[in-house]
Amino acid sequence: MLPPLDNSTITAFRECPRKAFFRYVRHWRMDGPEPVYFTFGSAWHSGLDAIYKAFYEARSIHGRTNPEWNRLRQSDEFAKVLTEVAGLAFDQVWTDAGWPLIPDPDQYADFKARTPAKAREMFFYYYKELAEHLNRWSLIQTEQPFCVPLDPENPEIFYSGRIDKVIEDELGTMWLLEHKTSTLFSKTTGFRNDFVQSFSPNSQVEGYMYAVRFLQSQGDLPDQPFGGVYVDASLVHKTSFHYKRIPVYYDDMLVAEWLDDVRYWHHSFQSSRTEGMFPRATNNCFNKYSQCSYLHLCRTQPSMQYWNEKYEAPEGFITDEWKPYATKEIETS
Fold it and tell me: What is the model's pTM?
């Protein structure tokens, strides 16, 4: 069986095949702490996992309709407890990645509000904003890995990933909850419109929809109406707090088109591996945020033949195997 592909690999391959080769074939990344935006996103996910776990455990103890539970969940004291629980989970991921809990002045300027202190504030207001939603929902699964076939006529190709949460709303409809953070701030709407619109069409979201329908067919998820994906967006900003649930509704035709797309890219990626051909996409060496972390490798040694014969990580890089089951995709905005 061929190694399963995930959205991160396919996205990188579409952006620049050479970049996909370095990261997802050779498994090289730059030495040192991962980018702060990546760590913040991973730590934010971990903190939200802690909030959801603590909330639903407390509700199961008290009972959803218990007046005492309603008083407790609406209190600032309960919100502060959940904030502390989330903050500790956040701090663990943050420090494990090599970042300090209290940044120095230069780091604080570079992090642009992505700090543990700001995360704690965000957790508090996140809960206050979503408390009623959480109580109306039921949590079905959290951090659900998947590996699903892409073609019934080809048992060797699979697509893998990890779903943040599966919830059931008050109408009995199942939804995926996909946590996202962003710095794309709008004074009028909280989030910039280009951020909100970026989730439809969106390969990651549509891939989750395909995975859910397959898991339902196998009995791994409940056989009940599936609404689609709620993108659970949280703004990272020095002074403003904003949260938004962006619904992306399930559509059979949308998912069918995604399946055609991803089969094409899967075939293209495997063909590149077989032929040892991963061309550079030189128009994508820079984006609006940064330059490609592999740019130096392409400048100093542009030959693909050279890299096909090199297995040890070059100077300044380490080998860090990409594991889509264990790693959440983190946005760069």
Answer: 0.91
